[in-house]
Structures are given as structure tokens and as C-alpha cells.
Amino acid sequence: MAKKTSKDYFGLGYIVSLILAIIPFTAWILGALTRFKEGKIVAGLIRLLFGFTIVWICDLICMLINGKILRLLNV
After folding, report:
1. Please, is 24 exposed, middle or buried when counting C-beta atoms within 10 Å of its C-beta (0-12, 13-18, 19+)?
2. What is the pTM of this model?
3. In this predicted model, what pLDDT tens digit does every residue of 28-46 receive, in sequence order?
């Protein structure tokens, strides 16, 4: 049986999450929504303000390496 793992962007599969992470607008919105869903309000607000900068590049690299977005602030 296949192992069910929870990936970022609402538990979507790795390929779908990677495609969504490549597109800057969807990575910005879904990254913020994912952090809000986790209950990390400050981290979600930071993603909304700075999501189009270096955070997007770091998210893309982290998504390629380990399948999860960057957890810069865990507050």
C-alpha cells in the first residue's frame, strides 16, 4: 500500500504542490493560507507582505528538496 503523507498546500501531492510553488502568485497566496491554516497568524502575515521576495525562492528550493514550504517563523 502507498504511504499517505501530508505535504504542503492543503495536503496535495508532491507534483501538484511543486507546480503550484513554481507559479509566484499561487505560491504567495497558498503559502500564506497554509500558514494561517496551521494557526501561525504572524507567519501568515509575513508571507502576505514579503511573499514575492526571497521567501518565494526559498519556498521553491525547500519544496524541491523536502516537499514542504519554508518554516521561517514558527510563531
Report:
1. middle
2. 0.75
3. 898 889 889 888 899 889 8
